Fold S1 motif domain-containing protein.
Amino acid sequence: MINVGRVNQLEVIKEAEFGWFLDGEDYGSILLSKKSAPEGIAIGDVVDVFLYFDADNQIAATKETPVAQVGEWGLMKIEGINNVGAFASWGIKEKDLLIPFSEQRGRLSAGQTILVYVYTDKASGRIVGTTKFNKLLDKTPARYQPNQQVELLIAERSDLGYKAIINGEHWGMIFPSDVFGKLFIGKKLKGYIKQVRADGKIDLSLQKVGVAKMDDLSEKILSLLEKKGGFLPLSDKSTPEAIFATFKTSKGTYKKSIGTLYKQGKITISKEGISLVTKD
């Protein structure tokens, strides 16, 4: 089945002076121009190509991969504005992505870099973008459990923290106390459900919460100590950046974990770092 707006695998069926024609099934032959084709292409090859509508509203193929395909979010730069809407660069050189005025949450301006959702407009059949995410999210009840791992996409920043899209389905919030490392709009990362409130709003964490967080980190510390010969140059005096680079956790959480391991007699702590206690 051919999916316009997504990457498809199509067979090369004919060569022309200006490119190659691909088998588009019900859509007929689809042109892959020479400048968009891979080297060494030949009739009978099956190639991965992205399908889109060109300036003449004809289906075209390219080996370029967009920032986001239909059904996905992507960070894009606004290249220009006209009387129809804004046009964003989405990785396809031949054609920018239209974001109609009706799909803009606040007017956009050239030079802005924003998060965009790509979809197929049912009325026109065109591939367009939207920044009105509320109509896409929270359509189903949030049935998440505390400490459940989820996929996050950072979508907005506010005085309350960072709003993130959870598994492409729901809104969630990462409060400043749960932020560590560098976050930015468009960043994709794994996170955890902190709680689902009575009003349906979801709090998020970038690490497991409660006892589960401590247990998980302790296992990682002990495992890395064993791999590194029993010593790590990370003490309770190390910088937050050094700790995050190794364990992707906050300094406070790290200090609590090594403190617990020390009390359990599993490690020793010095100014230089931590050492694994070996049993005779």
Remarks:
- The first strand starts at residue 7 and ends at 16.
